[in-house]
Amino acid sequence: KVGHSPVVVICEHASNRVPPPLTSVETDLPMLQSHWGWDIGVREVGRQVVQELDSVAVMARFSRLVCDANRDPLQGTFIRSHVENHPLSFNQELTDTEIDRRIEQYHTAYHRAVNTILEERRTHGGRYLLLSIHSFTPVWGNGIREIDFGVLFSGYDCLANQLAEQLRFQGNCVALNQPYSAANGMAYSVERHGRTHGLPFLELEINQACIGTPQQARNVGRDLTQALKTLIIPDRED
Predict the structure, then answer these.
(1) Distance between CA atoms of 2 and 9, rounded to whole angstroms?
(2) 223: number of CA atoms within 13 Å, CB side?
(3) What is the pLDDT of residues 176-205, one digit of tens each?
(4) Do 210 and 224 form a contact (C-beta atoms < 8 A)?
(5) b/e for 199-219, b at 16 or more Cβ within 10 A?
(6) pTM score > 0.70 for this model?
(7) C-alpha span between 171 and 182 (Å, rounded)
(8) Nearest Cα to 63, choosing from 85, 26, 34?
């Protein structure tokens, strides 16, 4: 049910599943269960937002290590053969036929589903935001990431600042275009669909330390919902 909600949620890294006919082996599991395999916590956050707002979400049902729904298929990181020097068993010696199959069956199918939902939502009228939800590790390399949320934007600066301010008001440490920047192409999926459909769009990055358990993730989802309810959504880019 799409309805009249002011937000449509998408989650490109909601699953660490390796779908058949692919198989994984035991040595792949540490990578699949880590942030390399999926964005820990985002599925629960997204579901909570959908429930609170009576909204709708599109969530990928395959691991980003099978192929990355938040990357252009021409990017070198679209399919990784190794992670942290570990060879992924299901990504070795890939043929062009297999790569094409993954593009069509996973990447294209995911983005087709997003398009379908957005086309249906358009029929209900009114302004609404396309929001992609991701998570990031609290430690990267030798550095500790201090922020709780990063609001990524490429255009819609005022909307990004509104969301950041509301999250700060709740007591969170929030930064714009950190720990990644949408200006550097790090918000491929939400920007692709936002610009195609002429929609305001943002990507939200959440520190996994804040959503490491299902209950934490649900709590963050409730807080995020309250912040989203305050937004003044524009009908064109700022």
Answers:
(1) 11
(2) 20
(3) 999 988 877 789 999 999 999 999 999 999
(4) no
(5) bbbbbbbbbbbbbeeeebbbb
(6) yes
(7) 24
(8) 34
